[in-house]
Structure of L-cystine transport system ATP-binding protein:
Amino acid sequence: MIKLTQIKKSYGRHQVLKGIDLSVEQGEVVAILGPSGSGKTTLLRCMNYLERPSEGEITIDGFTVNCKRPSKSDIHALRKKSAMVFQQYNLFRHKTALENVMEGLVIVQKVPKEQARKQSIELLEKVGLGNKLDSYPSQLSGGQQQRVGIARALALNPKVILFDEPTSSLDPELVGEVLAVIRKIAKEGITMIIVTHEMGFAQEVAGHVIFIDDGTIVESGTPDELFNSPKEERTKQFLKRFTPDGTYSI
Ligand SMILES: Nc1ncnc2c1ncn2[C@@H]1O[C@H](COP(=O)(O)OP(=O)(O)OP(=O)(O)O)[C@@H](O)[C@H]1O
Ligand SMILES: [Mg+2]
């Protein structure tokens, strides 16, 4: 379903991604962990070509882009395969929740307005915001804004949703409602890649966990393998930070 081959990305002389290989099956949920600056956001951005990789090949849903020689139509087709949910929500401030979700349907997918409206209402109901259709982002809590962000991503009907630390801007009491929505979508079988520091959530919802450090995949495996018996020293050091007693179990 998704295959990344030797994805590299440099900013000037700084190589941020050093050759990432990754395969993801249809319906799989993959969690990406790693320290700040390790390249997690860059990797997600490369996957939907918000950032152009310097080298490598990206295949999503049978469609391949060679990053050295991409054509405009290749990039356009690849972008349509994924939708991103951002840490900072990235909603249009001057549009209501409903208008934010409708935007992609009307502008990108050319769905007639009435139909887009109906679909968007259903999606907002799905994320528990059926009563906030006409609220502007400034009138919504962080958790509610992020749920609008998720509804907006779903509206694009993507093959994969890329979540970039979807709960890390939220007050702790709002994290649960967003995780609950992501959990619900995961059960519906959408392929998801989630960068997160919510270790308990990653362990529960992901089928596969990847630990990235310094632009390289250091270790990957099932949640049980990675969290309960990490092999690499760097993985152990990283996970230690997340447990107060210094053990790896969570
Ligand atoms: N547009 C850019 N120009 C130059 N350097 C950049 C750019 N974007 C990212 N970088 C650098 O690339 C490295 C990886 O950044 P990235 O945002 O991918 O890290 P991250 O793993 O997502 O970190 P965090 O957990 O803090 O979000 C960092 O050293 C960063 O400074
Ligand atoms: Mg990041």
In short: The chain has one domain: 21-50+72-240. Residues 40-41, 164 surround magnesium ion (ligand 2) (CB under 6 Å). The radius of gyration is 18 Å. The first helix runs from residue 40 to 47.
